[in-house]
Write a structure and sequence with these properties.
With 411 residues, the chain is α/β, with parallel strands linked by helices. The protein contains 17 helices and nine strands. The longest helix is centred in the middle third of the chain and has 29 residues, at 254-282.
């Protein structure tokens, strides 16, 4: 599978690269602008891939990575998972400013993190950020479509600030000359270069989510191994604990907290959460719909197995349904997926479409139900349920899917 991340250089006054802005990319064609996607998830995806897939220093040649942080992630102390030398925390201009946010930003700065205010403009400048304007190390100003007088007027509001000024969307030589004369020291835009998309071939099991899911695919997952996988990845541990505990956790004893949270969640809850996060991370399509459909089909096949006379285990049913769409979600071939994340041979044969067996019957039933019409023929799978109860079962699986993919917001 190919992983993608966007990158655009930031230059200084002598045309040297001073840092890189890292941008969300779902594939080589679709960026954040082409998606109706939650900002928290985009930032998490950028950071997870930058650290675990590409290596953040490789992406930026050891220079700072400018990364947009949402209010939720700032309030959740997500930036502390990274070395302050590696990142610049970009604060969006539409963020809600209150005492709690000011306290968080001050704490980040005291800990050595650089802060950048993204897209300071005439609408948000005077009222919202006056009280904290000196907290920022860098202030970005979008100069697109502005003449010299308009930019100077905006700069008047920053006359008492000692922060570096970054001119973004610099597209012509005359614009570059103008912002240089106005004392900007950092520059970004098409005049220098367009954003590029970096890609890397990566195993589905290369990330924490992939390793954890592989362990959870086993008929009897090893509890200690699951704990160690989560503990070994600081971002995964943070996201898992915030989800499972719904509260602050003891950062001094992550190992004990992971075991406590995993016990509270149980294997079924852990499998559901891990699968949804894994699907979000490996999805290369334009929306989450296909990923949701894969989860829903997995849950439906699992529940069908659970309510049938069969020797198939319900966990096998879940992964059978899930994997039947995983090639479309990831863009990888079914053979490569099953090489990386193997299942029992009869299940793999059914997924490859090479045999008709009990596994393929459950898969065909689920597919037929999704496309059900009056003339639909369902394969016999010895269900212990009537038609109305199957309908109720499917609705329950839809609710499970909605819950698994629901965005988690911090207070």
């Amino acid at each position: 599978m190919l992983a993608y991340i966007g990158r655009q250089a930031i230059y200084n006054t002598v045309y040297n690269v001073a840092g890189y802005e890292l941008l969300y990319r779902r594939n080589d064609q679709i960026g954040a602008a082409g998606l109706d996607m939650d900002g928290d998830e985009m930032t998490k995806s950028v950071l997870l891939d930058a650290v675990n897939v590409f290596g953040i220093k490789n992406l930026t040649n050891g220079l700072p990575a400018y990364i947009n942080f949402t209010r939720n992630l700032i309030m959740d102390d997500f930036a502390y998972l990274f070395d302050p030398k590696d990142i610049v925390v970009e604060v969006p201009s539409d963020i809600f400013v209150n005492d709690a946010l000011v306290s968080k930003l001050s704490g980040l700065q005291r800990s050595g993190y650089q802060l950048s205010l993204n897209s300071y403009n005439e609408k948000n400048g005077r009222i919202k950020f006056d009280r904290i304007i000196n907290s920022f190390d860098v202030i970005r100003l979008d100069i697109s479509g502005k003449n010299r007088l308009q930019v100077k007027d905006l700069l008047q509001r920053l006359r008492f600030s000692r922060t570096q000024l970054l001119a973004e969307r610099v597209e012509t030589e005359s614009e570059f000359e103008m912002v240089q004369q106005l004392k900007f020291t950092l520059f970004q835009g098409y005049y220098f270069e367009r954003p590029d998309t970096v890609s890397k071939q990566v195993s589905l099991t290369a990330t924490g989510y992939g390793r954890l899911l592989t362990e959870l695919m086993k008929l009897h997952p090893n509890f200690e191994m699951c704990c160690r996988i989560v503990e070994s990845d600081s971002m995964l541990a943070h996201l898992f604990l915030r989800h499972a505990l719904k509260a602050r956790y003891n950062r001094e004893n992550v190992s004990a907290e992971v075991r406590r949270a995993m016990t509270l969640m149980g294997l079924d809850g852990l499998r559901m959460w891990t699968t949804a996060q894994f699907l979000k991370q490996v999805n290369t399509t334009a929306s989450d719909e296909l990923a949701r459909k894969a989860f829903l089909r997995g849950r439906f096949v699992e529940r069908l197995v659970q309510n049938s006379e069969t020797s198939i285990h319900r966990e096998e049913g879940f992964f059978l349904g899930l994997f039947s769409l995983l090639d479309q979600v990831t863009g990888a071939t079914m053979d490569s997926i099953l090489t990386e994340m193997p299942m029992d041979e009869p299940a793999m044969a059914a997924l490859r479409g090479r045999v008709e067996n009990e596994y393929s019957a459950f898969l065909q039933y689920a597919k037929a139900y999704e496309m059900a019409s009056g003339a639909t023929q369902f394969p016999p799978i010895r269900l212990r349920l009537g038609d109305r109860k199957v309908s109720n079962l499917y609705m329950e699986c839809m609710a499970d899917t909605d819950k698994a993919f629901a965005e988690e917001k911090e207070e």
